[in-house]
Design a protein that fits this description.
alpha+beta; Immunoglobulin-like; 6-stranded mixed beta sheet; 4-stranded antiparallel beta sheet; 23% strand; transmembrane; transmembrane helix; Na/K_ATPase_sub_beta_sf; Nervana 2
Length: 292
């Protein structure tokens, strides 16, 4: 075959170009996408929209039935040993400026360094001031460790003057380098302190350094209100404030812890524990303090 004949034969050959989209994805002949027509896809999407809308509505309906029939409004669904807390109250403290940090650090000569700390304590005590400003007729009269009437539905007002000298007027001791830390028991529904020593019928708290060096650096501490047991001072969480059963106006009792002579420029690890309770578990609180 001559070159001319070969060239003529090439010109008569036809080429089938490769398709860019496979037919199993898009079939132009049948107008289908992944094997379905537009009508089929529309019906499929509508079905699943209706199906999942029904499931969401069914779930919400069952949840509402559960909440309205199984979860009471005035108390937790699980109380006592069935609750997650198992009658084990923990101890909270203020000031806490950053939730993820337990360090209380300030310079007594720099008001701006301790202003957020004192404001945080103010915010806590303001709630107590609001309750204390309400008419006395809504509350029990609680003086000298006695409650009148002794009715669990009526609660005692907590006297903020029992925290003195840890007061707003004194800036809670921060300008003097004798800072106050406010301790409170977390509310546990129905909990009553199971007292170990009936001579002091209250839950007690004491704080000390976590290590021997911390004990030395911490110096002496004072509690308000306080009592002595075995020659040792403790803060008091008075039993007349328990139990908590969701009463209107209820606020947990407080204890003010004041560091009277902490060693400056040293971070001190502090540990506080509940005492005078028969429970094997005692609430423990840890935080750090540094006075510059």
């Amino acid at each position: 075959m001559s070159m001319q004949e070969f060239s003529d034969n090439l010109s008569t050959l036809s080429y089938v170009s490769r398709r860019r989209i496979p037919s199993w994805i898009w079939d132009p002949k049948n107008k289908t996408l992944f094997g379905r027509t537009a009508t089929s896809w529309a019906l499929c999407i509508l079905f699943y929209l209706a199906y999942y809308a029904f499931l969401a509505g069914f779930f919400m309906g069952m949840m509402m039935v559960f909440l309205y029939t199984q979860v009471p409004d005035d108390r937790p669904a699980r109380t006592g040993m069935q609750s997650l807390l198992h009658f084990k109250p923990g101890i909270g403290f203020r000031p806490v400026v950053e939730v993820q940090k337990s360090l209380i650090k300030f310079a007594k000569t720099d008001p701006q360094s301790y202003l957020p700390l004192t404001e945080n304590i103010d915010a806590l005590l303001d709630a107590y001031k609001i309750v204390n400003s309400k008419p006395d007729g809504q509350f029990a009269s609680c003086k000298g460790g006695k409650k009148d009437p002794d009715d669990v539905e009526r609660v005692c007002k907590f006297p903020l003057e029992s925290l003195s000298p840890c007061t707003r007027e004194n800036n809670y001791g921060y300008p003097a380098g004798t800072p106050c830390v406010i301790l409170k028991l977390n509310k546990v529904y129905g909990w009553l302190p199971d007292i170990e020593n009936s001579k002091v019928p209250h839950a007690l708290v004491n704080c000390t350094g976590q290590n021997p060096a911390d004990v030395e650096n911490m110096g002496t501490v004072s509690y308000y209100p306080s009592t002595k047991l075995g020659g040792k001072s403790y803060g008091i969480f008075d039993s007349i404030y328990f139990p908590f059963i969701g009463q209107p106006g209820y606020l947990s009792p407080l204890v003010a812890l004041q560091f009277t002579n902490p060693k400056p420029h040293v971070t001190i690890l502090v540990e506080c524990q509940l005492r005078n309770l028969k429970n094997a578990y005692t609430g423990t609180l840890g935080f750090e303090i540094r006075v510059d």
